[in-house]
Amino acid sequence: MADRHPLLDRHGEALDLFGDRVHAVRDDQWGADTPCTDWSVRDLVNHLVSEQLWVAPMVRDGATVDFVGDAFDGDVLGLDPAASWDTAARGARAAFAAPDALERTVHLSFGDTAGRDYCTQLTTDLLVHAWDLSRAIGADEQLPDDLVDFAMREVTPYAAELEKSGLFAAPVQPPPGAYVQTKLLCLLGRRP
């Protein structure tokens, strides 16, 4: 499609990357630790599935956090986590691809946000958590350069505020000569 926004391609690429890692999880790895403090592999995937489930009501329907309530709290993975991921990812992809979705106002917990900004935040979150999941299951930890560059541009302007949110660990000093991926991960409190 000629007028397709490039952000949709980045988002789709991040969904696919995380989905590939979800499908690589072996049955004996769901309880394994991840780089995310207090989260197992199952907890991490559950977080990302829940996050994708929020997209349709928030973007497509214009719902508020209060309206959605606790609909996506708890275990949303059921007996087949990979299938649950696939369903949630399809819904998020479709919601953002709808006409004018990126221009809509999304009513997030911290305030109204442009759909474009919401999609950007989720793309970055998918990318970083793909690394977390890769590390936890022993998969390839190399992230696509275009997504790493995209996320670095997105995160850098507000990086100092991330730790204050309580959702990110303190930044880690990257080693001298670190590649952009390592710098991004260190900025987000990871120890690559």
Detailed description of the structure:
The chain is mainly alpha-helical and 192 residues long. It has one domain: Four Helix Bundle (Hemerythrin (Met), subunit A) (Up-down Bundle), CATH 1.20.120. It contains eight helices and two strands. Strands 1-2 form a two-stranded antiparallel ribbon. Helix 5 crosses helix 6. The longest helix has 23 residues. The chain starts with 5 loop residues before the first helix and ends in a 5-residue tail after the last helix. The model has no long low-confidence stretch (mean pLDDT 93). This is TIGR03086 family metal-binding protein. InterPro entries: CHP03086, DinB/YfiT-like, Maleyloyr_isom, MDMPI_metal-binding. One of its GO terms (molecular function) is metal ion binding. It comes from Streptomyces sp. R21.
Key terms for this structure?
about 5% strand; MDMPI_metal-binding; about 55% helix; DinB/YfiT-like; globular; 8 helices; mainly alpha; about 190 residues; two-stranded antiparallel ribbon; Four Helix Bundle (Hemerythrin (Met), subunit A); TIGR03086 family metal-binding protein
